[in-house]
Every structure is written in structure tokens, then in C-alpha cells.
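Could you join me in thinking about how sequence relates to backbone shape in a protein? We need material for that, and I hope you will provide a protein of your own picking. Once you have written the record down, we can walk along the chain together:

…
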Amino acid sequence: MKIIKDLVEEPDLEWVWEHKNQVTSGFTSKYNVDMLVYYEMHETYAEAARREKRFKNWPRQWKLNLIEKINPVWDDLYKKICS
């Protein structure tokens, strides 16, 4: 999970693309993560930071349940935000 200021701004889309294509080292390349399957929009950075902190403490199954509720077929949402 990562706070991104604005998913449609070029620098932030570049960040998503780099992780999607495993250009950077870290969690995404270590675990072969190549899809954006969930995102949330928040009014303020502080609100997003609070949500990120809570979300990171959730059990894995809670996160999977949330993703499957919002995106049951696990579509790659990167394509959606780029169009």
C-alpha cells in the first residue's frame, strides 16, 4: 500500500508503471506483483495516511476480502486509470 497524491498525474502514473513492470527493487519485484487491483480516494493527505496506517495493520484475509468486494475478478485497474 502506498499513498499517491494523484493517480492521474504523470509522476504518480510513472510510479505505478515502474512497480507494475518491476523496474524498482522491493516488495513488488520480490513477490512478482504486477497488477493494481485496489485503490482508494481521500480528500486529504492526512486522511489517506490514517487509512494507510490502519490498512497496513489489517490481517491479510481482511485485505483480500476488501479487494474481492470492490474488484471481484481482480481486473488490473492500471488500465482503467490510464484511459
